[in-house]
């Protein structure tokens, strides 16, 4: 990477570390801020203007009271958001697969039933195995 940078920009003396790593870290932070905002009720991503849309001033004021780093993103475009989603998008929890405690308890209850079914099957296998041994002995 550094060799290519030196060919393209011979006087820049850019290094992968810290120059590129620092820029990637900054982009990831900015992407995360925007991602969190647009996944909050009252906010959306405007794909044409490449910026955050807010339902109301009240929603924005409430959000920035708790997220000080979001202040600069009102009415500011971020052209790289879609591209950065390819790199950083999988780093965020999206709620898919999340369960409420009642669903977890229900599943646990089903697993206990399944476990008892497995025990019955195991007992049946043991019985069949003993019967097979008896038959071999008789032969």
Short synopsis of the structure:
Residues 122-139 have a biased composition (Basic and acidic residues). By secondary structure, the chain is mainly alpha-helical.
Work out the count of structural domains.
2
Largest sheet: 2 strands, antiparallel
Radius of gyration: 29 Å
Strand-pairing-aware structural class:
mainly alpha
Question: Poorly predicted ranges (pLDDT <50, ≥5 residues)?
Answer: none
Mean pLDDT: 77
- What is the CA–CA distance across the termini? 76 Å
Number of helices: 5
Series of H and E elements? HHEEHHH
Name the overall outline.
flat
Percent of residues in beta strands: 5-15%
Proportion of residues in helical segments: 55-70%
Record the strand order, biggest sheet. 1-2
């Amino acid at each position: 990477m550094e060799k290519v940078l030196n060919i393209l920009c011979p006087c820049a003396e850019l290094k992968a570390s810290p120059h590129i790593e620092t820029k990637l870290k900054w982009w990831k932070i900015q992407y995360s801020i925007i991602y969190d905002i647009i996944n909050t009720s009252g906010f959306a991503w405007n794909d044409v203007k490449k910026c955050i849309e807010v339902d109301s001033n009240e929603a924005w004021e409430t959000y920035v009271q708790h997220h000080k780093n979001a202040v600069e993103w009102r009415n500011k475009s971020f052209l790289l958001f879609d591209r950065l989603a390819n790199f950083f998008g999988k780093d965020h929890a999206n709620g898919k697969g999340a369960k409420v405690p009642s669903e977890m308890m229900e599943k646990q209850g089903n697993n206990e039933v399944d476990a008892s079914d497995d025990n019955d099957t195991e007992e049946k296998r043991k019985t069949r195995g003993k019967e097979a041994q008896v038959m071999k002995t008789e032969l």
